[in-house]
Predict the 3D structure of the following.
Amino acid sequence: MSIFEEMSSFLQQGRAPKVKELVQQALTDGEDAKAILEDGLLSGMSIVGEKFKNNEVYVPEVLIAARAMNAGMEVLKPQLASADVEAKGKLRVGAPPNLPPGSASIVPIVSPFYNIRFPEDKGYAFVVRFEDDELSRVRFRVVKVT
């Protein structure tokens, strides 16, 4: 069994200390941070997500696996922040359905971002669009608050 398969398996079991240990071991062995993320951590969460979809596991098991993923990300985050990892896509937050054109609406954007983890010390931007026209762009950096 490869270290990534082992990491994925322990993540699915929610064994956070073991996941953290395996992420550190993989980094020490010279594994690429992106490979650790995709082939170890995300593959495990994908399996948990599929099991949840099929009613094979329930919310508590998903949350326990997510805690194990976060434990691994604590070790991996500094490596990802310094690596040149390309974006896989865009996070899109939609407007309320059936909003008439030209009408004003205040859309809360904070709640969809609750507990999303961005790598620190990287620049990001919120882009506000309406029907493919960019209305506003707000740039921000993530900083650690202690």
Remarks:
- Residues 89-146 form one domain.
- The first strand starts at residue 123 and ends at 130.
- The chain has a mean pLDDT of 77.
- The two ends are 39 Å apart (CA to CA).
